[in-house]
């Protein structure tokens, strides 16, 4: 393990250890209030205690941070470092699944929790300048809300560097802290927001913990190994596909070759019949060639 590497808050394992740990609900509450611009009366982290038991080889989805707020809304927070060019589709699919599975047996549709997906990204996915994009279902022509039961948020962290006007002060400070690119802004955020100061202490404690460092490293290593394995499987599949293609191509080539050979043999027989001055009617009757084809062969023989 590279002991000199500092684990970043943007690593999903570290992020969940800071914001999903029991006793840190106030940190998550403050962050969510700044993103959603609502007052949160009650917050409960889903499967919070298991954050201590996360294994490096757990599937990526398990690392998402989930919570319920005000007893009627399910929140899923995902932090992404690498752009796989499918963020909107992936998030839509996942949040729709959470909404679909939200109802318990015997409950009616109206009792289903609202579901909000929050994606904090270390890269940009939209062409516009705003860094916080929110999506809900609207009537297209009237631009009126049809339902807000499913809501998506995308926070593109690189955009906060040049975008100096958007968002509340609290939101910008939280994002600066998570993005960790401008030390002066982070220092100011820590000074002005006690929750961010606490999050910084928690983060520094975690990143100095050898066990946490080791688990974060093992998870990162597992992700790399997993991607390498998938790449190897892809290459093997492509190799197998090429081999199958070559075999099929060889068989097709053999068939085409035989067909061309037969055609050449037939054509040579017809030429010999023409040389022996056999009548056209007899040649056509024997070889089943058309009058046009026979005339074409005669023209070719004149040029030879």
Task: Summarize this structure briefly.
The protein has helices at 12-19, 25-36, 87-100, 169-179, 183-192, 194-207, 210-275, 280-287, 291-303, and strands at residues 43-45, 65-69, 73-80, 114-121, 132-139, 144-156. The chain is an alpha/beta fold and 304 residues long.
Structure, described:
By secondary structure, the protein is α/β, with parallel strands linked by helices. The protein folds into 2 domains: 12-208, no CATH class; 248-303. The protein has helices spanning 12-19, 25-36, 87-100, 169-179, 183-192, 194-207, 210-275, 280-287, 291-303, and strands at residues 43-45, 65-69, 73-80, 114-121, 132-139, 144-156. A 6-stranded mixed β-sheet has the order 1-2-3-4-6-5, sandwiched between helices. α5 (183-192) crosses α6 (194-207) and α7 crosses α9 (291-303). The radius of gyration is 34 Å and the shape is elongated. The relative contact order is 0.10.
Helix content percent band: 40-55%
Strand order in the largest sheet: 1-2-3-4-6-5
Give start-end ranges of low-pLDDT stretches: 48-62
The number of helices is 9
Distance between the termini: 78 Å
Main beta-sheet annotation: 6 strands, mixed
Query: What is the β-strand count?
Result: 6
- Morphology: elongated
Task: State the main characteristics.
6-stranded mixed beta sheet, 9 helices, 6 strands, elongated, 2 domains, single chain, 304 residues, alpha/beta
């Amino acid at each position: 393990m590279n002991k000199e590497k500092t684990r970043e808050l943007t690593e999903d394992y570290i992020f969940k250890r800071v914001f999903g740990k029991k006793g840190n609900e106030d940190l998550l509450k403050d962050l969510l209030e700044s993103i959603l611009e609502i007052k949160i009366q009650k917050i409960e982290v889903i499967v919070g205690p298991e954050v201590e038991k996360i294994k490096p080889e757990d599937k990526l989805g398990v690392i998402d941070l989930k919570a319920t707020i005000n007893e009627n809304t399910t929140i899923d927070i995902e932090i992404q470092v690498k752009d796989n060019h499918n963020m909107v589709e992936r998030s839509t699919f996942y949040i729709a699944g959470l909404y679909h599975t939200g109802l318990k047996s015997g409950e009616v549709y109206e009792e289903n929790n609202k579901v909000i997906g929050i994606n904090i990204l270390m890269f940009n996915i939209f062409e516009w300048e705003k860094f916080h994009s929110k999506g809900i279902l609207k009537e297209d022509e009237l631009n009126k809300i049809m339902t807000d039961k499913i809501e998506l948020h995308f926070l593109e962290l690189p955009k906060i560097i040049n975008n100096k006007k958007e968002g509340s002060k609290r939101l910008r400070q939280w994002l600066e802290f998570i993005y960790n690119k401008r030390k002066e802004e982070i220092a100011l955020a820590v000074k002005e927001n006690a929750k961010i100061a606490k999050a910084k202490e928690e983060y520094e404690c975690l990143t100095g913990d050898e066990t946490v460092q080791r688990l974060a490293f093992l998870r990162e290593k597992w992700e790399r190994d997993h991607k390498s394995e998938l790449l190897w499987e892809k290459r093997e599949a492509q190799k197998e596909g090429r081999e199958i293609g070559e075999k099929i191509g060889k068989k097709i080539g053999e068939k085409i070759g035989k067909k061309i050979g037969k055609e050449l043999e037939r054509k040579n027989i017809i030429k010999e019949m023409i040389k022996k001055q056999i009548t056209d009617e007899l040649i056509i009757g024997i070889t089943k060639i058309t009058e046009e084809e026979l005339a074409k062969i005669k023209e070719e023989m004149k040029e030879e």
